[in-house]
Amino acid sequence: MKALSIRQPWAWCILHGGKPVENRNWWTSYRGPILIHAAKGMTRDEYEDCRDFAAGLGVTLPPAEELPRGGIVGRARIVDCVREHDSQWFFGKWGFLLAEPEPLPCTPFKGALGIFDVPEGALS
Which DSSP helix (H) or strand (E) runs through 72? Predict the structure, then answer.
């Protein structure tokens, strides 16, 4: 299975806050199911910037200490990769359009750059 590492609280916003696009500086041809990996790192500034941005859209984040990090936290489908999108969540050079987000219990797993492979059975 393929996975994408996303820093919190942005991963939470995809799975719980209605964020339909993941902003990236690179294009992907990959389409299909993707596991959402919550990166281990998150600074106070990153949390506060996302919290304030999300609040402007009517989304309230949980406290920073409640956000799982360093593991697989959900899954979705990448359905397209675009340079423009009308979502207020889009502000990247490229946007991975996501569909069918589904939270999963956090399973500790080391992330990697780009879209990476997670061995079968890693989530059991």
Answer: strand 71-82
